[in-house]
């Protein structure tokens, strides 16, 4: 592990301990600041255009070197309780600038003010908005991290139920696919993951819904047949590791194409930190 990564891991661990006693309001403020920081490196390489819709809040992030007709529909993380458009702009900016592709970054409604299925409804509305505005499903890629990673799979389940054309692919970073947290990694990696705790995840789940066993909440419990190809990234030390392993296995058993990359010694959503280990894929 690189020295910088070791130092960063230590700092994340300190912040993690504070997060367990932080209010929802403060969590939202902090997460939005993280988004601003993440966007800073690439924001001169993109432009932002707000999407006018009464059904959801979102914006297009357009790279100045656009060379792709497709679009990424990005759903942010935050345990379903935090992450506004400012936070969503962070990783969305990196996706657009580094891949020279347009990104639709969605700020879905948050719990506990808006419980399930509000976030899922907003995701469906955003996807249908893209279809209605000329984007073919064959040119739409879904991408999400953490709660947003689980939400992209839940969205695909809902599209399947509604007989709406599927996206061409799914990219999930440390997806939270099982809100019942039944996987073994919630115990085996309990002390390894410096970035998040089961206590905090329990709180997030309680804020979001009481229907934790619904496949639209925990998509690992759903029928995944017919899903498009999936690419899943997860840290080997994170407590959500089992979620990624289980949904990857279920996708493969359902006859779908899915590739899982487990990064040794890495923590939750490590891919978003721009560390050297995240580029060694």
Short précis:
Helices cover 38% and strands 17% of the residues. It has helices at residues 3-19, 24-40, 85-99, 118-132, 147-161, 185-188, 198-208, 241-253; strands at residues 46-51, 57-63, 71-75, 102-107, 140-145, 169-173, 230-235, 258-263.
Query: Which runs of at least 5 residues are low in confidence (pLDDT < 50)?
Result: none
**Which superfamily, in CATH terms, is the homologous superfamily?**
Alpha/Beta hydrolase fold, catalytic domain
What's the total number of strands?
8
CATH class: Alpha Beta
Q: Main beta sheet, described?
A: 8 strands, mixed
Distance between the termini: 14 Å
- Helix/strand order: HHEEEHEHEHEHHEHE
The average pLDDT value, as a whole number, equals 91
CATH topology: Rossmann fold
Shape: globular
| Fraction in beta strands | 15-25%
Work out the count of structural domains.
Answer: 1
Overall description:
The chain has a single domain, classed as Rossmann fold (3-Layer(aba) Sandwich), CATH 3.40.50. It is 38% helix and 17% strand. Helix 2 packs parallel to helix 3 and helix 4 crosses helix 5. The mean pLDDT is 91.
Can you lay out the helices and strands and say which pair or pack?
Layout lengths: L2 H17 L4 H17 L5 E6 L5 E7 L7 E5 L9 H15 L2 E6 L10 H15 L7 E6 L1 H15 L7 E5 L11 H4 L9 H11 L21 E6 L5 H13 L4 E6 L18
Helix pairs in contact: 2-3, 4-5
